[in-house]
């Protein structure tokens, strides 16, 4: 598959002037959403990430950032508003800590996710509950020091895939399988019994900053999941 998508990373730890400029770009609904965050840090990160999304979309569409209209799919996936629907530009965004990652594609659904790799006390229980049997076995076989990386490799890859599908958590996490062992290439192994290389989706993993794991999934052909 050729490079039919674009991935960018930006920082969210900006100064007060940049924060004010970001707030000015947000829609009333986004400002209301920002006001609901309990912590100022999370509110600032959301505002900057969403404003940067508008700026990146504006560059690709050749319009002012304030003219960007965003809507949401049936399951909450952000999409361009109806005035820009003919552009066929698909996008997705995720952020963790002070880093945001963005993915763009023309004519192809796309999903992206980033997480801070860390030790989670109940990681083994989460893996047992949400990973497929094969993923869980691979995870359990990892050296203890590799388990946090393996866990978040799996989690970001699964999250990127369900975001690309636009299904959110309505898509069972154990209905598809991904690679997760540190050092192994990022791959979709299978989707509901269909081999990963024939499922119509392409996956890549990357490290946007030290201590972060990220993955992007883009439509590559006929989809086997709708």
Major sheet, described briefly? 3 strands, antiparallel
Strand order of the largest sheet: 1-5-4
Please, how many helices? 6
Q: What's the number of extended β-strand segments?
A: 11
Distance between the termini: 21 Å
Mean pLDDT: 92
CATH architecture title of the largest domain: Alpha-Beta Complex
SSE sequence, one letter per element = EHHHEEEEEHHHEEEEE
Helix content: 25-40%
- The low-confidence parts are 222-226
Protein structure class = alpha+beta
Notes on the protein architecture:
With 226 residues, the protein is α+β, with helices and mostly antiparallel strands. It folds into two domains: 5-108, Ribosomal Protein L22, Chain A; 112-219, 4'-phosphopantetheinyl transferase domain (Ribosomal Protein L22, Chain A), CATH 3.90.470. Helix content is 33%, strand content 26%. The strands form four sheets. The chain has a three-stranded antiparallel beta sheet, with helices on one face. Helix 2 runs antiparallel to helix 3. It is globular and about 50 Å long.
């Amino acid at each position: 598959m050729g490079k039919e998508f674009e991935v960018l990373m930006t920082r969210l730890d900006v100064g007060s002037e940049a924060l004010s400029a970001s707030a000015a770009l947000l829609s009333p609904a986004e400002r209301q959403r920002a006001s609901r965050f309990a912590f100022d840090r999370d509110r600032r990160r959301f505002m900057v990430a969403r404003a940067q999304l508008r700026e990146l979309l504006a560059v690709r569409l050749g319009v002012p950032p304030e003219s960007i209209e965003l809507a949401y799919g049936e399951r909450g996936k952000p999409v361009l508003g109806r005035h820009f629907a003919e552009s066929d530009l698909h996008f997705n965004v995720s952020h963790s800590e002070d880093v945001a990652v963005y993915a763009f594609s023309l004519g192809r659904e796309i999903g992206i996710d980033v997480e801070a790799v860390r030790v989670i006390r109940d990681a083994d229980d989460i893996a047992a509950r949400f990973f497929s049997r094969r993923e869980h076995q691979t995870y359990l076989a990892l050296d203890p020091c590799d388990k946090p990386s393996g866990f978040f490799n799996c989690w970001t890859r699964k999250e990127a895939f369900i975001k690309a599908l636009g299904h959110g958590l309505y898509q069972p996490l154990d209905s598809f399988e991904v690679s997760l062992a540190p050092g192994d290439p990022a791959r979709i192994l299978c989707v509901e019994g269909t081999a990963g290389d024939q499922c119509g989706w392409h996956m890549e993993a990357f490290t946007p900053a030290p201590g972060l794991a990220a993955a992007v999934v883009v439509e590559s052909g006929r989809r086997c999941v709708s």
